[in-house]
Design brief:
By secondary structure, the protein is α/β, with parallel strands linked by helices. The chain contains seven helices and 13 strands. Strands 1, 2, 5, 11, 12 and 13 form a six-stranded mixed sheet that branches. The structure holds benzoic acid and fe (iii) ion (FE).
Length: 285
């Protein structure tokens, strides 16, 4: 009779996956068990703490539906989503950042140079740059999928007063890789905190704020899809994003511009802000 004891249980669980067909899955599960057990040993996990953890997961499951995923949010606020992005990073390529829950297919197609701001209120911003490869050459026929909050920090999905195509677009770029659009400056907002993640943030002495940002998803044949964000570098939450999405290379100045002739070129009021950002795409793997 070979009973399990505290010294043998970890190896026994890892060995239980020995017959797994998929070698990568076996490696990941083995490491997961090893680290989970090491965690329980390190904190000498008590049964009531184990029950608290299970209750958290149960509440997360109850609140999760097609429009809200509390498990992804848990991963976000624990930095796991961002760590996974950071582990994928390719030297010289634009750094990745979280997709978030507000990306939706079906954005309206806009031409390069379009005005996205329309009747939204807020500070006008001209955003422009290029999509380049790692050698600095324009990427041909890239598309940009873009979404942002309005100046009150709300996405169209959260605000019945906004139309479903507000402040989002898809833009097909020409061979020069140049993109440009005018919009309004987005605002900081909180991740949902009315569920178990909110309770966890409060218990941990943390807030739920994200700095203002633009979301971009850049696609081009032969290149790895790039999901990232661009942040105003003077945002008050720039160094304390609740989901750890800020990278130094993604925080940029929103430069005030009071040139009337520049403003007229884009039918903007003067002054407006200007953001310049080039994307660097790595080859598809
Ligand atoms: C967002 O940027 O839209 C977002 C990201 C993570 C969690 C919640 C929202
Ligand atoms: Fe967002």
């Amino acid at each position: 009779m070979h009973g399990i004891d505290r010294n043998t249980i970890t190896d026994a669980v890892i060995a239980s996956f020995d017959a797994a067909q998929d070698g990568r899955m076996k490696e990941v599960l083995g490491a997961l068990v090893r680290h989970l057990h090491a965690f329980a040993r390190e904190v000498e996990l008590r049964p009531e703490e184990w029950r608290t953890g299970i209750a958290f997961l149960t509440r997360a499951a109850a609140i999760t539906d097609a429009g809200r995923n509390e498990f992804v949010l848990t991963s976000d606020i624990l930095g796991l989503t961002s760590l996974t992005d950071l582990l994928q990073s390719v030297p010289g390529a634009t750094e990745r950042s979280v997709l978030g829950p507000f990306h939706a297919e079906g954005s309206p197609e806009l031409p390069v140079g379009a005005d996205l701001a329309r009747d939204n209120t807020g500070e006008r911003v001209l955003v422009r740059g290029r999509v380049l490869d790692l050698e600095g050459r324009p990427v041909r026929n890239a598309t940009i999928d873009f979404w942002q909050t309005n100046a009150e920090g709300l996405y169209w999905q959260q605000d019945p007063s906004q139309q479903s195509d507000n402040l989002r677009f898809r833009m097909a770029l020409a061979d020069d890789g140049v993109y440009a659009f005018t919009t309004v400056r987005p605002a900081p907002y909180t991740v949902p905190y009315d569920g178990p993640v909110g309770a966890l943030l409060r218990a941990g002495g943390r807030h739920a704020w994200r700095p203002a940002h633009f979301h971009f998803r850049v696609l081009a044949q032969g290149f790895a899809p790039l999901t990232t964000e661009v942040f105003p570098d003077d945002d008050r939450y720039i160094d304390e994003d609740a989901v750890f999405g800020v990278r130094a290379s993604l925080a940029v100045p929103f430069v005030k511009c009071d040139s009337a002739s520049e403003a007229a070129k884009y039918s903007l009021p003067s002054p407006f802000s200007r953001v310049e950002f080039d994307f660097r795409m790595s080859a598809a793997r």
